[in-house]
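Lab notebook, bench 4. The sequencing result for the construct came back, and we need a structural model before the next group meeting so we can plan mutations. Quick request posted to the team channel:

Model the 3D structure of this chain.
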Amino acid sequence: VEQALNTLPQGIETADYRQRLDQMNVIAQNLHATLSRLEVESISGVTQEANRLSQLGQEMGHELRRARRELASLESVMTDLAEGFKALSLNLATLGAKSTHPIAWQATMDALADLNRQANGLRSTQRTRTPPQIIQDMETAASIRSRQKTLERACGEIEIAHTELLILLAGPELGQLEAW
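Done. Here's the predicted structure in token form:
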């Protein structure tokens, strides 16, 4: 556990874990001292405490390893979010700036801005996070990314429908409507 604590990236807050490790070390020292003068009646209690301490250490090590993985995933998702926001914003701006029948994206732009604000709330690279905060932020980022993808799909469908409508409007059927 101590090795895991010492090799974690800087973005992970470990003060609580270091405190817990110090407490575990004190208990381990007490158990070791008890072993030197162990009585038959106390073997069961010492064994139970050693097992509990071992389990706590394994759980803490697992939490720290998961935090390391989740932090790397969070950084990756945040990069994907930033790229997705740029691409979607550019696509919306392009379709909204068409000279013939531009698309008014106000509701979509509002939804995109809201998602971007939420993502920016997670972006602070200077802040350290506890392992539970990392997991929560990863879940939030994944939710934002999912909603961003849904917005991308909806915009793509609107773009296709818009293109089809423009083709229909420019077609000979509607072009000869006045002659009828």
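The chain has a mean pLDDT of 86.
Will bring this to the meeting.
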